Every structure is written in structure tokens, then in C-alpha cells.
Amino acid sequence: MFSRRDFLIQAALGGAASLISPNTLFSATRPKKDKLGVALVGLGYYSTDLLAPALQLTKNCQLVGIVTGTPSKADTWKKKYNLADKNIYNYQNFDQIANNPDIDIVYVVLPPSMHREFVVRAAKAGKQVFCEKPMAPSVADCEAMIKACADNKVKLAIGYRCQHDPNTQAYQKFAKESTFGKVRMVTCGAGYFDARTTHWKQNKALGGGVMGDMGVYALQGARLATGEEPISVTAQFHTTRPDIYKEVEETATFQLEFPSGALAACHTSFGINMNYLQANCEKGWFKMEPFSSYTGNKGSSPLGPINFPLENQQARQLDEDAEALMKGSALIAPGEEGLRDIRVVEAIYKSVAAGGKMIKI
Ligand code: NAD
């Protein structure tokens, strides 16, 4: 763990930065903390069931605030997590968070169409920003979010929890080190059966559609298992429930080509339960199933099983990102990483709109 002493030393080293940016964590006027204060924005499923419980296990950060449009949720959360009244905001008075020294990090956990607005507002308030995946519905949104954070000298991390999982890191290493020669073909699927019919995931304007949602896991699988960025894509959309998936795609299949010649065939769906990754290499293979779950990601290769223990994936992500902020070191998945995926997602929509044409990225 990152100790208080390390933090104080690092804070001193960061002194020069603080002169230019009074809002950063390294500000000389800001009291030093053992744990950074986190405010969750949007108290839906992921905040309620995963992030808030994980924030009870973290060592480098803690839940101290919330931003919600629902007063009854504010009451429940206040009692459950012992939150101070002054750390509870709604969407209207959110910008006043700028004056609240308890809150160092704002974590945006809203429907994707709202990510840009709240990331930009958080950055302007001088807060460090975490944002859930998909980063935003468009490349233009992602670029605006990255720029707002840079302009306000705050960091932006995307909630790619799997990149903090040692099981993901194990297969990334095979690609990086060419353990089995070059990776030639990745097959990857991420999906579940979503029984909801009127959720934001089925609504285009709110950033729904499976490509941004489960699709980014399949895309990350291909990118991380090759260690490369795709140069072209072809894609197809399908639905078995056209009455529900009127505006957005239920299932997507897409094929990627990488600079080395590696290929990937990816599948993602709100109607099919799947979670697997297989990489075939020049001299071997590796596979994971599941590869992007909250718990129990595991796999194998000719070298043996891949099965590293992990107490809580979200707590690991939150702690590693908070530690990077404290140390001023690189984030595992910064805004630029979210943007890389959305570039491909945009190309996938273009391919489908053009009847499955190959689109260069
Ligand atoms: P959810 O629908 O359960 O929660 C969304 C929250 O946004 C709710 O509190 C809702 O009240 C609020 N909201 C505000 N304005 C809204 C509007 N106009 N329409 C709908 N909701 C509105 O969604 P969720 O599953 O918690 O997803 C939130 C974010 O977290 C998304 O970006 C999603 O992709 C991401 N997520 C990530 C993971 C992961 O594993 N990293 C898992 C689940 C969700």
C-alpha cells in the first residue's frame, strides 16, 4: 500500500505543479490525506451493488459523497454510509462541489450520454475524475472530456476494472512477450440476456446499444490479447427481439484486423449469455472463460492454469487509480484508453450503416 509518508514526500515533490494548478491534489494549501474522498454521481445498479460496497474495502480512497437526482436515495445512502449532509449534491447544485475539500474524486456512473456533461463539470470544479465505460457515445465527446481534464489539470480514469485484474494482466503479458509467438487470431464474446425493455440500454439518446456496453469488453479482449490497435473493422448487427431493440442493436458481430496481420472475431449481445476469449498464436494458444466478469476470471495456456486470486476487482481498481493520483504516476486506463475503444465503436457503426463495408480506422 501507498503510505502516508510516501504521499507527503510525493506531495512535496509535486510542489512545482501546485504553483500552476491550485486545484490539484498536490496543492500546498490542501490538507494531506491517507484516503482520497470519492463522490459517486448516479446511484443506480453499478454504484449501489458494486462501487459503494467496494469503497468500504479500499485503502487509498473512501466514499464520502454522492450526487443524485433522487432525494429518497440521498436519505438511504446518507444513513447507510454515514455521509455528511454537506457532501450530498443533486445535479443542479453539483458545481458547488468545487468548494468541498472532502471530495477529491468525482466518479461518474450515469448513462453514457451524460458522461461528457458530468466529467466536464467535475473537471471545471477542479476534481479528479473517474468515469464509467463506455467513456461516451462519440469520439467528439471523448476528446472534449480529455481536453476539459487537461485544461483544468486534473486526471481522468475510465472504469476498465478488468485491466486491474491480475488474470487479465496475465494474458496481456503473453501478447506483450510473444510467449507463444505472435498472436494470430482472437475470438472473443461478451454478452448476457437483458430482460429489461425500457432501460437506457435500449435507448439511443441515452447512449444505449450493446456495442458501447458489452461490446467494449469484447473489443478490449481483442486489443489486450493482441497488444495492438485495430486498423480496420467490418461489422454486422442482429436482433431476435425487434419489438424491444427498435433504436439500438441487440447483438453485434465484428471482425478486426491488426497491424501485424492478427485478426479478431468478436461477438457481443444483450440476448446471448457468453463470456470467453481465445487467442491462437504461431506456437501455442491461451484462453479465458470468463474473461471479463467481476469475479472468477480464469483461463489456461500450455504453461498451465491462469487463476490469480483477487479479493474485490472494483476495490483493486479504485485503490490503484487513487494511488496513481497520490503518486502522480500513470493511470492504468486513462481517458485516452476510453477514446481508443470509442474510435473503433464509431467505425463499427459506420461499417453497419454502409452494409458491412470494411472501414479503416
Ligand atoms: P442504472 O440504470 O442502474 O443507473 C443509472 C443511474 O443514472 C440511476 O441512478 C439513474 O437514476 C441515473 N440517471 C440520471 N439521469 C438519468 C436518465 N435520464 N435516464 C436514466 N438514468 C438516469 O445504470 P448502471 O448499470 O448503474 O450503469 C451506469 C454506468 O455504469 C454506465 O456507464 C454503465 O455502462 C456503467 N457500468 C459499468 C459496469 C462495469 O462493470 N464497469 C457495470 C455496470 C454498469
Shape: globular
Helical content band: 25-40%
Looking at how many chains there are and whether they match, the oligomeric state comes to single chain
Q: H/E series, N to C? A: HHEHEHEEHEHEHEHEEEEEEEHHE
Question: Distance N terminus to C terminus?
Answer: 40 Å
Radius of gyration: 21 Å
Looking across the biggest beta sheet, what order are the strands in? 14-13-12-11-7-10-9-8-15
Output the structural class.
alpha/beta
Number of helices: 10
Largest sheet: 9 strands, mixed
Low-confidence stretches: 1-23
Number of strands: 15
Q: Which hetero compounds are present in the coordinates? A: nicotinamide-adenine-dinucleotide
Range of strand content = 15-25%
What is the typical, i.e. mean, pLDDT? 93
Entry keywords:
NAD(P)-bd_dom_sf; globular; TAT_signal; oxidoreductase; Gfo/Idh/MocA family oxidoreductase; 361 residues; binds nicotinamide-adenine-dinucleotide; GFO_IDH_MocA-like_dom; alpha/beta
